[in-house]
Design a protein that fits this description.
- The complex is a heterotrimer of chains A (410), B (263) and C (313).
- Chain A is mainly α and 410 residues long.
- Chain A has helices at 13-49, 61-64, 76-86, 89-95, 106-118, 128-133, 135-144, 158-162, 175-206, 211-224, 228-242, 244-247, 265-289, 293-301, 306-335, 338-343, 363-371, 376-406; strands at 50-57, 120-125, 148-154.
- Chain A contains 18 helices and three strands.
- Chain A is flat.
- Chain B has one domain (9-258): Rossmann fold.
- In chain B, the strands form two sheets. Chain B has a six-stranded mixed β-sheet, sandwiched between helices.
- In chain B, helix 4 packs across helix 6 (157-169).
- The longest helix of chain B is centred in the last third of the chain and has 14 residues, at 187-200.
- Classes of the chains: A mainly alpha (410), B alpha/beta (263), C mainly alpha (313).
- At the A-C interface, helix 1, helix 9, helix 10, helix 11 and helix 13 of A face helix 2, helix 4, helix 5, helix 6 and helix 7 of C.
- Bound molecules: adenosine-5'-triphosphate and magnesium ion.
């Protein structure tokens, strides 16, 4: 109150600095935890993808061959003999439909013996970590089981990619699902790319700042936030049900009782096209926006029309950005499963898709189905399939990064 | 019916708006044929706006609109039946910052000719020859004749600007509009552009916006001085022979601006 | 002053000179592009119209009462009990758990990255977050089921935590939306002008004081938008809950029990062979419509928040 008194300050820097340190540590820890999440997630999948598997046989291979021999070093007549002896006449007839067994390759015959007679099946699986840390216990446990072999198994292996779906996890693969994914993405991109780039060109080069274009812009942002499962429901109502005549291929004479309901690759592709459209539009707009205006002016200034300007100057200079966005859309479509489940992905198909009117499954769908099975070995299989999916995604994204860096012109 | 006109381009009572803001107010000016007309004036007075309205480049700014009339060969270029693309073909433009296309030098010149319907005819230049002619006219040929396939962006700033001039004349315009064509260049490159403008005046009508008084005095035949009114819209103060404007201006505002600059 | 350059010109010639060309190709392309522009509108209308159309038999059936729909605690379309609350409750439970994880960690990471981390550190952490954001959700679902759930069961006991439970799904969903919230928040914080921070430092404020008193208030609209978008994403998330949260609608507040969210229900029921025009089929569209409007209003809210609060600034 007195004019002569100066205000009083307490030296509080020590405590302030202490709280500064505490907070900094807290923030650091939260960042660290974020990274740990990622590491744990990946480790968990790797942990499930490799490990010991105890394999039992319906008929152990050792019983089929003489002592000291293995199936692999038998010759063709011996293998054919085993098959003739053990396989039912009906199946034999089916097998020898084209050529007699003696003309099969040796590898083929070994596989046949394994699949038709020995019939290996998973007794128990262990994770990678368990396989390392409890090696002796596992060996002991399996040693007590009769006719059971312990192998260290990698669930990601070439067979996983090249084999079709099977109820036996030891030979099940993602081939059908992978092909399905490729078909679906191909259709989705073929539809969404021209539409998306067209929309972006319209918004950036033709539409001014009027009401309609503002509505369209807001609408696209909103569409980007619509949950993917809603697109699935839209696809179910429109492509699967209303347009069943078209999407089942009936109009082209492809109609089969299985696909007559429109639960086909086309429907899946079109549904995902709608899903990734906003993504492509938004990225293409950014790319087009980044082309400097001086370039457009130069073009208009020498009497080019709007489309000549766009085609010869705007698009060539924004194509890296547009393609980067498209690649992101591809990886989004590759990982999407909910809408595909909704429009009716098949639960079990073993034949490659023949055309766009085939029934479909996709890689993430396969993962979903294997994960939701109660048996542990299917979890392992799912982990292997996840590694395939993540590898694909990683290479796609690496391509995007390379593209982005290669063509940085402006 | 025949009509009497006074210049190549006649601007009559032109006002140009950006939204509600009037950037140029009631300008009337005639651009004489085969001469260089310089537009000078303080920053923001609407020189670029006026210049860009002469070949309808301002149409590309959605908020802008124009009142009054601008005639080219007596034809109102803002009339409904007129194609802005055609206008720009006949009235070309060179910009402040050199802006070659990110393509080869050859393509930079050839593209404009090609899209405007360049035809290969016996007894007439082929496209290659035409590119050469334009580059010679733009005083660039000797420097680039060995690297026509390399990117236009690989040239120096001054060379890039001459490439832009070559690109502009390749569509055979009658008028070339230049918006501060040398302001991004060093003094030597500036001098070359100025020489080039004098040479081009033999064949083309040139309108140039410049901030550089000496440049206006050196290159132009006529000078128009614009300034800002109280409401910040640009008005034309005075227009006449360059020597007369610079030595004996009628309006005190012109004199103030010029002497202020000359110090 | 200016020499009269008056000369005669022939208007016929000049009017030909600049005449409008009939650029058919140009006009065709333009109309194609306009059509493209309107596609997105059609999609939105399509969603509302188609979902509405298919849901109509459900909403208009004699057994349907709006009050019962919104307040009933049993969802059993087969016996005409249409209380959507069990599904909504499960959605809310997973969402709240997800936010409890994603908001503190997401915003913490954002603050650390924008205020503390060196350029080099940031350039390694940001891509890490992007990778996390790019992993398909089915993989997260796998993670929930094969890691988080067993972990919770070890931690709290097998008799407390069921094999399928909303806690596990919620936690993993939190990890899923964490990168989204972190990167949106980081953008918002990075947009705060340097001068504002310098003003605070100039008054002797420490870094954390500057952050809490100056930077966060200035970026609050962006942070709010990030959280809202995170909520919307969590509500619409499907595969995690489909795998880990449990099958069968159940009205429960216990996160260690299994319960089915709206999205989980749609996936499970539609995944089976669903016959058109059954009450199951139509009710799915009813739920979808509800879901669509929930997420739509959240997304619009977030855009509005950004616009409104940036006007104030
Ligand atoms: N695209 C635009 N939108 C809105 N206003 C504009 C636009 N371009 C120019 N203006 C305004 O019009 C007025 C005249 O601008 P203009 O660019 O023609 O001036 P100038 O004389 O060329 O200036 P300078 O010498 O700085 O280039 C200025 O007030 C400017 O702010
Ligand atoms: Mg200017």
């Amino acid at each position: 109150m007195g004019e002569n008194h100066a205000p009083v300050f307490i030296a509080n820097l020590v405590s302030r600095n202490r709280s500064e340190r505490i907070w900094k540590n807290l923030l650091q820890i939260s960042t660290l935890i974020g990274i740990i999440f990622l590491i744990v997630l990946l480790l968990n999948i790797i942990n499930q993808s490799f490990g010991y598997v105890a394999i039992g046989y319906r008929v152990p291979p050792a019983k089929l061959v003489g002592p000291g021999q293995t199936l692999e070093n038998l010759d063709i007549p011996q293998l054919a003999g085993i098959l003739r002896q053990r396989v039912s006449p009906g199946l034999l007839k089916q097998l020898e439909n084209d050529t007699p067994l003696e003309q099969f390759s040796q590898v083929n015959l070994v596989n046949l013996v394994m699949a038709k007679i020995a019939k290996p099946e998973v007794v128990k699986t262990w994770s990678f970590w368990q396989s390392l840390s409890m090696r002796e216990e596992i060996k002991q446990e399996v040693g007590q089981l009769p006719e059971t072999r312990l192998v260290f198994f990698s669930w990601v292996r070439p067979d996983l990619v090249s084999n079709s779906q099977s109820s036996n996890p030891l030979i099940a693969g993602v081939r059908t699902a992978l092909l399905g994914s490729l078909w679906i993405i191909l259709i989705a991109i073929m539809v969404a790319f021209p539409l998306g780039v067209g929309t972006a060109i319209y918004l950036e080069e033709y539409a001014g700042d009027n009401h309609i274009s503002k509505v369209i812009r807001t609408n696209i942002n909103n569409l980007a936030g619509v949950p993917s499962i809603i697109y699935g429901m839209l696809g179910l109502a429109v492509f699967v049900r209303n347009l069943a005549q078209l999407t089942s291929g009936a109009w082209l004479g492809f109609s089969s009782p299985e696909t007559a309901n429109g639960r086909t690759i086309v429907s899946a592709g079109l549904t995902l096209a709608l899903l990734v459209l906003p993504l492509i539009i938004i990225n293409a707009r950014e790319a087009i926006k980044s082309v400097p205006d001086t370039l457009r002016q130069a073009s208009y200034g020498i009497g080019a029309t709007r489309w000549q300007t766009i085609w010869h100057h705007v698009l060539p200079n924004s194509i890296p950005g547009i393609l980067t966005g498209t690649i992101l859309a591809i990886s989004r479509a590759l990982g999407e499963s909910a809408p595909l489940v909704v429009i009716g992905a098949s639960t079990y198909i073993t034949v490659d898709p023949a055309n766009v009117f085939s029934r479909f499954t996709a890689l993430p769908i396969q993962i979903y189905q294997w994960t939701s099975r109660p048996q542990a070995e299917f979890r392992n299989l799912a982990a292997g399939a996840i590694l395939v999916l993540l590898t694909l995604l990683l290479s796609i994204n690496a391509a995007a990064i390379v593209l982005r860096n290669r063509y940085k012109r402006y | 019916m025949d009509t009497f006109i006074t210049g190549k381009i006649d601007v009559k009572h032109v006002s140009i708006y950006y939204g509600k803001f009037r950037a140029v107010k009631d300008v009337t000016i005639s651009i004489p044929d085969h001469k260089i007309t310089a537009l000078i004036g303080p920053s923001g007075c609407g020189k670029s706006t006026l210049l860009r309205s002469l070949n309808r480049m301002n149409d590309l700014i959605p908020s802008s609109h124009i009142e009054g009339s601008i005639t080219f060969h007596g034809m109102d270029i803002y009339e409904r039946s007129v194609d802005p693309v055609e206008v720009r073909r006949h009235i070309g433009m060179v910009f402040q910052k050199p802006n070659p296309f990110p393509r080869s030098i050859y393509e930079n010149v050839a593209w404009g000719a090609r899209i405007n319907g360049f035809q290969q005819r016996l007894g007439h230049p082929s496209l290659d020859e035409w590119v050469e002619i334009c580059l010679i006219k733009a005083a660039l040929w000797d420097e680039v004749k060995d690297k026509l396939r390399s990117s236009g962006l690989s040239l120096s700033g001054g060379q890039q600007q001459r490439l832009c001039i070559a690109r502009a004349i390749a569509t055979r315009p009658e008028v070339i509009l230049m918006d501060e064509p040398a302001s991004a260049l060093d003094p030597i490159a500036t001098l070359r552009i100025e020489e080039l403008m004098r040479e081009l005046a033999a064949e083309f009508t040139i309108v140039v916006v410049t901030h550089n008084m000496q440049q206006a005095a050196r290159v132009s035949d006529y000078t128009a001085f614009l300034t800002m009114d109280h409401d910040r819209s640009g008005i034309l103060v005075e227009h006449g022979n360059t020597p007369q404007i610079f030595t004996n201006p009628v309006d005190s505002r012109t004199e103030g601006y010029i002497t202020g600059r000359f110090g | 002053m200016i020499p009269s350059q008056t000369k005669l010109i022939d208007e016929k010639v000049t009017s030909q000179l600049l005449k409008k060309r009939n650029r058919l190709g140009e006009r065709f392309i333009e109309s194609t592009l306009v059509f493209c522009g309107f596609i997105s509108i059609f999609i939105t209308l399509g969603i509302v119209f188609e979902l509405g159309k298919e849901a109509l038999p459900f909403f208009s059936s004699t057994d349907f009462k709006l009050i019962k729909f919104l307040t009933g605690t049993t969802w059993q379309p087969q016996i005409k009990l249409f209380g959507v609350l069990p599904l909504v409750m499960a959605t809310l439970t997973t969402t709240v758990i997800a936010l409890l994880i994603a908001i503190p960690f997401g915003i913490g990471i954002a603050i650390y990255l924008s205020e503390y981390a060196s350029v080099k550190l940031r350039s390694t952490i940001k891509p890490t977050l992007e990778i996390l954001a790019g992993i398909p959700t089915v993989v997260y679902g796998y993670f929930a089921l094969s890691f988080v759930t067993p972990f919770l069961r070890v931690l709290f006991g097998k008799d407390v935590v069921e094999i399928y439970n909303t806690a596990s799904a919620g936690i993993v969903m939190g990890i899923l939306i964490l990168p989204l919230i972190a990167s949106m928040s980081e953008d918002a914080l990075a947009a705060v002008p340097r001068s504002l921070r310098e003003a605070a430092y100039g008054l002797g404020a420490t870094k954390i004081e500057t952050t809490y008193r100056v930077v966060i208030p200035a970026a609050i609209s962006g942070l709010a938008a990030a959280i809202i978008v995170g909520i919307s994403r969590a509500i619409g998330e499907t595969m995690i809950v489909a795998l880990a949260a449990g099958a069968g609608p159940k009205f429960t507040f216990n996160p260690f029990q299994g319960a089915e969210t709206m999205t989980g229900h749609i996936v499970r029921v539609s995944g089976g062979d669903l016959s058109y025009d059954s009450i199951d089929y139509n009710s799915l569209f009813g739920i979808s419509l509800l879901l669509f409007f929930m997420t739509l209003s959240l997304n619009m809210l977030s855009q509005w928040v950004v616009r409104k609060l940036s006007e104030v600034k």
